[in-house]
Amino acid sequence: MESLSLGQFIRKERMSLGLSLSEVASDLACSAPYLSGLETGKQKPSPSMIKKLSDFFQIDINELSSRANVITLENTLSKMPAEQIEAVISFYRIKKQANSSSTK
């Protein structure tokens, strides 16, 4: 797969479908200027927009996230050994318990 930035990818895919900025923006429930900003790299996508783009262009969300330099929990955990995942879960359980104890 070509090494395109998120914006380059969006523009290439949109144009290959023969769609205007307005048409894609309408389907994604965003403005055409915002979508244009994503294409030019002047805007950064939110996690929910990455999900919408993933669904719209039918591309794996982790692939799209990496193009946007966004770290997703799923992407991070998929690269970790099981023991490390368990350690992270244990840490957050302990932290959650400590936080709930301090608020009582």
Descriptive key words:
elongated; 70% helix; 104 residues; mainly alpha; 434 Repressor (Amino-terminal Domain)
Topology:
Layout: H1 6-16, H2 21-28, H3 32-40, H4 47-57, H5 61-67, H6 73-78, H7 82-102
Helix pairs in contact: 1-3, 2-3
Describe the overall structure.
The protein is mostly helical and 104 residues long. The chain has 2 domains: 1-70, 434 Repressor (Amino-terminal Domain); 71-104. The protein has helices at residues 6-16, 21-28, 32-40, 47-57, 61-67, 73-78, 82-102. The longest helix is centred in the last third of the chain and has 21 residues, at 82-102. The model has no long low-confidence stretch (mean pLDDT 85).
Brief account:
The chain has 104 residues and is mostly helical. The protein has seven helices and no strands.
**How much helical structure, as a percent, in the residues?**
over 70%
Q: What's the overall average pLDDT, rounded?
A: 85
Q: What is the highest CATH level, the class of the largest domain?
A: Mainly Alpha
Tally of discrete structural domains: 2
Number of helices: 7
